[in-house]
Amino acid sequence: MSIYWNQRVKTLSPYIPGEQPRQGGFIKLNTNENPYPPSPKVIEAIQKAAGDDLRRYPDPACMELRSAIAHRYGVMPEQVFAGNGSDEVLAFAFAAFFESATGKQKALPILFPDITYSFYPVYAQLWDIPFRPVPLAADFSIIIEDYKQSAGGVVIPNPNAPTGRALSRSDLVSLFRFHEQDGEGASVALVDEAYAAFGKDLEVAPLIHEHPNLLTVHTLSKAASLAGLRVGFAIGNQELIEGLCRVRDSFNSYTVDQLAQAGAVAAILDAPYYEGVNQKVIATRNRVSAALPALGYEVIPSQGNFICIRALQKTGAQFFSFLREQGILVRHFDKRRIADFLRVSIGTEEEMDRFLEVCESYRAL
Ligand code: PMP
After folding, report:
1. Residue 301: CA count within 13 A, CB half-sphere
2. Distances in Å between the alpha carbon of 104 and those of 89, 107, 247?
3. Residues lining ligand 1, Cβ inside 6 A
4. Which residue in 2, 136, 197, 327 has the fewest CB atoms around it within 10 Å?
5. Please, what are the averages of pLDDT over each run of 10 residues along the chain (365 residues)?
């Protein structure tokens, strides 16, 4: 606490990112990074962009990148927004579409799951947006009917994190419809598709044509192996995209640098490479998920590039420490209902073989 902090900063409880250890030697399964490298075309594009042009500002509109994304998703470039990682896009979306408690009208709370990406409550707090966490079912699935109530907006990650469970497209569509004609006025339904590429038929971005209140948020960090480049984007109707631009241009017009724009375009264009990489991740996830129950672990069925697991008879903290001692880093959320679970990102085949070996030895202890 400092006397120089304003009231807002004093009351924040910031997000705590997963550990990025300085020294090597760990099997790093704690931040849902892709275990495989980015497409060689991405590296080539970044190297090519690292030249004299760096003295210039990047294109603030990210036109080439937005066009590539638009082409891939069957939308118009005006329906795409690009930002510095999807965290930034999410922060802008919260600022642009959800009413703050200090606004003129009494704001309705926004809804998101009680167990979900822990940045959502942080953004809500940052912008003074009232929110109501909606409990997941006992099996950790999202009960879509619970979100069909008057609200300032809804935020649904699909698949959810850290559980990995996903909703069907038809469930989501019923939610968009509800909030298009919600009695208190229409509100935005934000679907965070950070992990959608690892699921089956989950992506809803093309549905923006039918649902003017739908905003999908995407990242190149996971499915495009580019967590270090910091590029995320949103797809939604033109009014929503303009709303995001208004927030960005009241903050920093150049959030996506030249190298990131060049690399991101190459990544979007090299879909076949990433199809291959992500199929491998999915196959490994399915293999590991199938192997763990016989070793004494509960596994929540996942459509992400991670699994959420519990060692029967052990606490999450004990299991976490054991894995760490064995050189395996995973994520533990010390929160109600999931404190005994660990989120384990899917690594390479070899890394996950070692992980399974360690899990087997833990059961034997
Ligand atoms: N949404 C979800 C659900 C996530 O898990 C993450 C990664 N921590 C993000 C968004 C943010 O990803 P990035 O900022 O790297 O694009």
Report:
1. 6
2. 25, 8, 19
3. 85-87, 117, 157, 161, 192, 194, 219, 221, 227, 232
4. 2
5. 93 90 89 98 98 97 98 98 98 97 78 97 95 97 97 97 96 95 80 97 96 97 98 98 98 97 98 98 98 96 98 93 96 93 98 97 82
